[in-house]
Amino acid sequence: MGKSSATKDAQALFQSLRSAYAATPTNLKIIDLYVMFAVFTAVIQVVYMAIVGSFPFNSFLSGVLSGVGTAVLAVCLRIQVNKENKEFKDLPPERAFADFVLCNLVLHLVIMNFLG
Amino acid sequence: MARLSLIVLITIIPFISTLCSSFSPENPTDRRILVLLDDLALQSSHSLYFSSLQSRGYALDFKLADDSKIGLQRYGQYLYDGLILFCPSIDRFGGSIDSAAIVDFVDSGHDLIIAVDNSASERIREIATECGVDFDDAPVLFQGMGHSLNPANSLVLKALSASSSAYSANPKTKLSNPPSLTGSAISLVSVVQARNNARVLIAGSLSMFSNRFFRSGVQKAGSSIKHAKSGNEQFLTELSKWVFHERGHLKAVNVRHHKVGETDEPAMYRINDDLEYAVEIYEWSGKSWEPYVANDVQVQFYMMSPYVLKTLSTDQKGLYFTAFKVPDVYGVFQFKVEYQQLGYTSLSLSKQIPVRPFRHNEYERFLTAAFPYYGASFSMMAGFFIFTFAYLYNK
User: Fold this and answer.
1) Which structural domain, as residue segments, surrounds residue A81?
2) Is A51 in CB contact (< 8 Å) with chain B?
3) Tens digit of pLDDT for each residue in B214-241?
4) Which of B42, B81, B27, B39 is nearest to B58 (CA)?
5) Is the dihedral of CA B381, B382, B385, B387 positive or negative?
6) Is residue A1, in this structure, part of any structural domain at all?
7) pTM greater than 0.90
8) Do A108 and B370 touch (CB under 8 A)?
9) In this structure, are residues A30 and B395 in contact, taking their beta carbons and an 8 Å threshold?
10) What is the distance between the alpha carbons of residues B239 and B241, in angstroms, rounded to a whole number?
11) Above 0.85 for ipTM, yes or no?
12) B130-143 pLDDT, tens per residue?
């Protein structure tokens, strides 16, 4: 009785979360997908390093940090372009996206230099 | 006539140089020895010992210890390579010699033989104490004095120690207290090799060098076998060969090192280089340099502490060699050989060599193990590109 009610509660929770998330604007959903992709790439590399060892350590660092860095920058973009966030209401979303692109260019320049 | 004298001079020059070059690296045996005696009668009573030295090519200069004209050096140059002190009762040396001058003589790499008798003056005790030997005040058998070694001095060791049932006391007085020196702690003849390879022999008995002791028969206590001749002559002759560097003198030459497969010595190594190290070690036989054969010569690759310690292989012809990999640490290293073998002069070689890290273009590229990382980085870039379009054109 108790177990099935717990499952039911969890199902209800997911249902409500999903319906709430459905109201999120599309551009934020795209950012979320992008963040998940970046974090997943970073986690895969950490698992790979745990298996084969840390020998090309600089390559490992730049690979993982490219994933983590991308995720962090994307999260920053999401905070700035979220309409419900009143903190950045004066910042136009075009400006936020331009910052994001510039930071990504710098990040990938550093990653390429450190990868070899 | 002038031409003749020139020829004579030219023929003499090599001999002059052999006379002058005592204790050269090429011929480490001492040549000129000053013998200081209490009494010139010792010259005849100990003639067997002296003549065995003279027959081996030593120039002995006999002087009374209180002779006012004696001196060890003149104009900063030592006149002698070795010194024999057969003057146990001297209170004050003549000329410019004092105990400090004798210690300086040893400190500058020269050799010394001291023998005392039932008495030893303060001067002689002072010199012996400098060498790490304290004379006990009582004579023991073999007609002389036992002495104890300073345990803090690792350079001095016993050449002849008393039997385990011996004790050191004056046989003519009543023994009221237990003797301070007993058993094999009593040293009868001690030898010292200083860190500069100067050698010192300290004997508690002057009589053991005498003709009477050389010739006298000997019988071991509790044994019926009588030896017609005591072992003194052989023992002391061999010891004097050692003290005056006829034996046990090593030299190391031709230190070489290079990368495996090359022959030139580089000015610098890189971390993880494979290198080869070789050194030649020879032993002086009294006449010529013979290959030194041992299996315990080690080389250190040293920076504050040894990073590599390897035992050298030998070809039995004096060449010692090994090969090793430079450690994965950069800095200023040294090749060090510290060889201290009992009875031999110590070898101490060091050669400095810097070790550098990889140059920027010496690192390995495109490692198979790193492909996932490359792939991840490039996929993040591609993802950024796609994301940009998806984000901008998602209406």
Assistant:
1) 26-114
2) no
3) 777 766 656 666 666 777 777 888 888 8
4) B81
5) negative
6) no
7) no
8) no
9) no
10) 5
11) yes
12) 877 777 654 444 55
